[in-house]
Design a protein that fits this description.
The complex is a heterodimer of chains A (419) and B (255). Chain A is an alpha+beta fold and 419 residues long. Chain A contains twelve helices and 15 strands. In chain A, the strands form three sheets. In chain A, strands 1, 3, 4, 7, 8, 9, 10, 11, 12, 14 and 15 form an eleven-stranded mixed beta sheet that branches. The longest helix of chain A has 44 residues. Chain B has one domain: P-loop containing nucleotide triphosphate hydrolases (Rossmann fold, 3-Layer(aba) Sandwich), CATH 3.40.50.300. Chain B contains seven helices and ten strands. In chain B, strand 7, helix 7 and strand 8 form a beta-alpha-beta unit. The chains are: A alpha+beta (419), B alpha/beta (255). Chains A and B meet through helix 1 and helix 10 of A and helix 2, helix 3 and helix 4 of B. Chain A: It is found in: Cell membrane. Chain A: Keywords: Cell membrane, Membrane, Transmembrane, Transmembrane helix. Chain A: InterPro entries: ABC-4/HrtB_transporter, ABC3_permease_C, MacB_PCD.
Chain lengths: 419, 255
């Protein structure tokens, strides 16, 4: 009966109640969205690269190097010479070193030039290897340079199949005015989805990059019987954007980093992805805190509004309180009734906000992954939502104290007779 | 059927004259004794007595009824209702006492508008703790049906929203709700003021039938002096906020 009265009382004032729910839900949505996006972005960034101990590039900010080389956000301002790459690769503590070349795109999707070793050594998530869902990796020689391996999202969104021919463009924007149309790349493989920027990337060999930027038509387009020829893998490559490095033992990471940073022939820097990510989080943390603070203040203001709405309704509800008192309701019952109404309003608002975050998350996820390389998996209920939900319920009960105490006092003072 | 003997008659008479409301030097103020709003040296109401209470606004009628139902407590004096010294009861016990022993009918707008008629009636039973067990629930349903029929209301009215009823229907539902816990005291605060003459007579007829059947003590507050003749006793509250005299049937003492 207690719950029935509270719910029916709210239904009786449904316009006010819905407006209150809408305003609380909207402010809760902002809070939940900020929290979810920041935590999902962290997870997304964190899972993009694992197993890479160092990233070597020309001297720049470590965040710039990390974002450009791993997340395809921004540009690498300078390059690493092929000789330097060879020197790094031959360091005694270096287990593997994979060069990557960036700067081209296809219909807005970035193109990554690399060696075939990339598919073996690059790990994401919890040290998961890349998987080729269809076809195979490109062939590591200059003769087969015009081959491309697509990320899962590129294949899906552009509807590409194996053996499809495509032209790559210069620059990384969606619209490019320079197309390398003298070289037609053939799709030889499609990667399985990883939920990282790899899905949005087209992978070609370094020879492919060179062929694309030179006027020479790749060798294989002139010859059908290519088995007869011998080719070196990177015969024309003289520079790369960055080098991903794996060391033989963890303790060697700092040693190799120092060696790279002290490199005499060329101004290079080596960054540890985890450390760079931490710097990114520290930079984001203050912004996140400001956003969270604003969201909490907005929520506080809205809950205050709900409290005011209930307080204002007390005058018109004095007869209702009087009837309840006459029937034997204690002032505590009246107090709890108001708090229950607050609880019901907040619970419905929380649910609406969760649906909003989930629904808008579903719409925003592809946009975020396409434009920012941030992969979010919006969940309906997670630990953050649970904690925020509990916090908000507690906060709303505290805010509800004002009208509830008012009703309690009203119940004590109101007698049987209301004229 | 056995005949009643003399001792039964004595018990019956003494029960009839049992004082179920006793005021003795009861004083009340809203500001801790500084301004007295009620001073009742002595007043009793017998079981089954139908008392008409009248008085001008501010004469203390509301305070009197609030004291009787345990909503407020007197500053001093002794107030005994149904043998209970109300001053000794805790707030919780007073609420329970009111739910179980006292029925109230207001002037108008007696019902909670957003609840159904059935819920409005069940609310009274809920506070009196009579909706818990299944046997009690069955008894309750039976009793509601009986009362609804007695008051010439259709059973289908139970599912209707209280706000959809006419004033006359609302007042009759209010009687059902007030009587559902079989209270020993029924307080009716100007219940006929919003009714037309025809509805007023029908309402009073039904009310009296019901309180007589249940031997319920009725305290009826009204300004309508034409109703006085139907009551056993009449109380006019003085302008000094003191019950000066209780007049017996028709002997109303007007100040």
């Amino acid at each position: 009966m207690f719950i029935k009265i509270a719910i029916k009382s709210l239904i009786n004032r449904k316009t006010t109640a819905w407006l209150t729910i809408l305003s609380v839900a909207t402010s809760l949505f902002v809070l939940l969205a900020v929290k979810q996006i920041s935590s999902q972005a962290k997870t997304s960034f964190g899972r993009t690269v694992s197993g890479v101990d160092l990233i070597v590039g020309a001297r720049t900010g470590q965040l710039n190097l990390l974002l450009a080389s791993v997340f395809r956000i921004g540009y690498v301002s300078n390059s690493v010479s092929w000789d330097s790459y060879q020197t790094i690769k031959n360091q005694k503590y270096v287990k593997w070193a994979v060069p990557i070349s960036l700067g081209d795109s296809h219909k807005g999707y970035p193109v990554l030039g690399t060696t075939v070793q990339y598919f073996d050594v690059f790990k994401y998530g919890n040290k998961q290897s890349l998987e080729i869902a269809q076809g195979k990796a490109f062939t590591p020689d200059a003769f087969q340079s015009a081959q491309v391996v697509l990320g899962a999202a590129v294949a899906e969104k552009l509807g590409y199949q194996l053996d499809q021919k495509l032209v790559l463009s210069h620059g990384v924007g969606v619209t490019s005015f320079t197309h390398h149309d003298h070289v037609k790349f053939t799709v030889v493989g499609i990667l399985a989805a990883t939920g990282t920027p790899i899905d949005q990337t087209l992978h070609i060999s370094l020879s492919g990059i060179e062929a694309m930027h030179s006027d020479v038509v790749p060798h294989h387009e002139e010859h059908e019987e290519h088995e007869e020829h011998e080719h070196s893998a990177h015969e024309n490559v003289d520079k790369v954007s960055a080098v991903l490095v794996g060391v033989k033992a963890k303790f060697a990471t700092l040693y190799v980093q120092k060696a790279v940073n002290d490199f005499k022939n060329e101004p290079l820097m080596a960054i540890i992805p985890g450390v760079a990510l931490t710097e990114l989080w520290q930079m984001m943390a203050s912004m996140e805190k400001v956003l969270l603070l604003i969201s909490i203040l907005v929520l506080f203001a809205t809950l205050l509004g709900m409290s005011t709405m209930l307080l204002a309704s007390m005058r018109e509800r004095s007869r209702e309180i009087s009837i309840l008192r006459a029937l034997g309701a204690s002032p505590l019952f009246i107090f709890c009734l108001i708090e229950l109404e607050v609880l019901v309003l907040t619970l419905i608002s929380l649910f609406v906000a969760m649906v909003m975050v989930w629904g808008i998350g579903l719409i925003a996820a592809p946009v975020l992954s396409s434009y920012y390389g941030i992969f979010i998996e919006v969940s309906f209920l997670n630990q953050d939502t649970l904690y925020i939900g509990l916090g908000v319920l507690l906060m709303s009960l505290l805010m509800g104290l004002l009208p509830a105490i008012n009703a309690y006092k009203n119940a004590l003072q109101t007698g049987l007779l209301i004229k | 059927m056995p005949e009643k003997n003399v001792s039964d008659l004595i018990v019956s008479n003494s029960a009839k004259l049992e004082e179920i409301i006793q005021f003795s030097n009861v004083r009340f103020s809203y500001d801790r004794g500084q301004t007295l709003v009620l001073d009742i040296p002595k007043w009793q109401v017998h079981r089954g007595q139908h008392t008409f209470i009248s008085g001008v606004s501010g004469s203390g009628k509301s305070t009197l009824l609030n004291l009787l139902s345990g909503i407020t407590a007197p500053d001093s004096g002794e107030l005994l209702v149904l043998g209970q010294r109300l001053n000794d009861l805790s707030a919780r016990a007073l609420d329970r006492f009111r739910a179980q022993k006292v029925g109230v009918i207001f002037q108008q707008l007696n019902l909670i508008p957003y609840l159904s008629v059935l819920d409005n009636i069940l609310l009274a039973a809920y506070f009196a703790n009579k909706t818990q067990k299944s046997k009690l629930k069955t008894d309750l349903q039976h009793k509601i049906q009986q009362l609804i029929e007695k008051l010439n209301l259709p059973i289908s009215i139970l599912s209707r929203q209280a706000s959809e009823l006419s004033v006359g229907q609302q007042q009759r539902v209010a009687i059902v709700r007030a009587m559902i816990n079989e209270p020993e005291i029924l307080i009716a605060d100007e219940p006929t003021s919003a009714l037309d003459q025809q509805s007023k007579s029908a309402f009073l007829k039904l009310l009296f039938e019901l309180v007589k059947t249940t031997n319920c003590t009725l305290l009826f507050v009204s300004h309508d002096q034409s109703l006085v003749e139907q009551f056993d006793s009449v109380v006019e509250m003085s302008t000094l906020n003191q019950i000066a005299e209780q007049a017996e049937n028709g002997a109303l003492n007007v100040y």
